[in-house]
Amino acid sequence: DGGGAPCWDGRARTRAGGQYDGNALQRDAPQVGQDFSEQKIQRLEHIMENYTQWLQKIESSIRESMRTELAQLQHSAVHNQTAAMLEMGTSLLSQTAEQTRKLTDVETQVLNQTSRLEIQLLENSLSTNKLERQLLQQTNEISKLHDKNGFLEQKMQEMESRHREELEFLREEKGTLQDLLKRQTGVIQELEAQLGRATGNNTALQRQQQALMETVSNLISLCSRDGVAPNITKRAEEERKFRDCADVLQAGFNKSGVYTIHISTQETKKVFCNMETAGGGWTVLQRRLDGSVDFHRSWKEYKTGFGSLSGEHWLGNELMFLLTNRRQYALRIELTDWDGHMAFSHYDRFYIGSEKNNYRYKMLCHGNTVSICYLHTLVHFKNFHS
Q1: Which PROSITE patterns does this one have (predicted)?
Q2: pLDDT band at 26 (very low <50, low <70, confident <90, very high)
Q3: Which of 137, 229, 269, 376 has the smallest C-beta neighbourhood within 10 Å, fewest atoms?
């Protein structure tokens, strides 16, 4: 410590002095062969030994001092490290608190975002349920449309089948008509020849018919004056077997009214004959004037006919069938509106099928005031209850 350095220095000087003395002894010593005294050598050895012990003590003292200082330095270092660790811990605590606050903010944001997502998920779920209901409804509608489509396809197939049948019937009818046309052409040519031969006799026959009509008129007048006129005109009609109103007209009866026609040799029917329209001789099938008769009738009533012949009536499908299938007939349809405007359709050929064929009727038309058609019309009869 404080006195160590001077002692060291003193020793150093003493040792240095010892060296000096030794050198002096060597310098002053006699030449080789001079003897030293044994005591002096022992003394020097003793001094050297003391120096050695002293040096060892100094070395031990230095080591002890260094050990103490090292312990103090270590203690100071530990203290400084502890303070640094405390400061670091405080800093870490501050940082941890800041990070905790930030994490809390983040957690709050996450919770808010989660809440929004849950709300959105709920809304999406509601929308999905609505869409599922709409999809189910549309699926049901599509199923219904499929059913309707199947029904329509079935109807279309049925219509196509009927159309094919009708086309086949028309082809057969066309062949029949062509054959009939050929035969009728020959007949017409023959009739034209006969007409040419009969033209010369026509004037004489007309004069005879006129004379006969005058005679009948005179007889009717005479009977009327005598009070005996029991339907002479009616008996004259019945004596002639008229097939239709055309025969009635050809017989000289030119007033519209109810006449008797012969369906067969034993069966007669009363019909209304129109002797004024388009040259007369029309057998009236249907007549509607003022709506006094209800035409919403059953199949049976349309078959047999209904109404009053002198007023509104339907002649009857069965009678129409019997008439149109023994002669060739034309059909004229007249329509009049409330203002008195009249329109008509004229069909050159007309006939009605049997009840077995649902009174199917066919018309061939050329020209009229309503329309112009060149197609065959083939239709099943249907009443209001069909």
Answers
A1: FIBRINOGEN_C_2
A2: very low
A3: 137
